[in-house]
Task: structure prediction
Amino acid sequence: MRDHTVHVETTESFVYQPPQTARDAKRILVKPNLGYPVGPPVTISRGVLGRVLNTLREFNPTAEIFVVEGVCSPVSLHEIIDRNGLSDLFTDRIQLLDADQLPLIEYPNLSPQPVRFPSMYAPAILQEVDCRISIGALKRTHLKGEPLISASLKNLYGLFPRSKYKARSPNSRGQLHRPSVPLILQDVYFCIGHLFDGAVVDGDRKFISRDWKPDKGKSIEFGKVFWGDDLINVDTEACRIAEEPIPNYLHCINQLRQSQIKS
Result:
């Protein structure tokens, strides 16, 4: 049974404890927020990513670890890794994979009330691994006059192929912004988010944008890391402690989850 506890630590004292599914896993998938050619807090910090990967390796020395990301920029994933000084983390059976280049399958939407997508395409590897962990950065942008919080759930946007979900720009996933990101995040959770065994939110620095741009804004020192088994609970607690507005999509997903349990 999934543990709903959320752990909060200072960045300096962050000690990661992987979900139990990682202990005996043959294959572990890590989805970091590294989709832009910009350093923290637009993307996650080397310290947090390195600590998670090192802990997973110590926790399960024989597992294959796949770090899977899809970029939101013309810059390739491998170039982003090089620019951000992360290349040396990919050793000892830790493999970097570009989500846009992986085989896809269709994941059914298990929500009792789908918003737009009855199913969504994402890499087949999500079904082929034994443990999945999302590492998101703590960011606030604004869409249509409303604040949008990005953390471990919104981080999963990078797993969806741009070839299927692009709109005007080939570098982004514009189809996932219609009718709105908060609404589509409900579909994201019930298609692939529910598969994830763990979440980490890097709040060493908060990123605040004045508009919709997720790679241009100001950095605010915060010095905390949040982690646990449940994406929704981790994101909610991160918002609460960071004194950020708790987004309505988190409330909606929790209500839908409760209705599934009762039925």
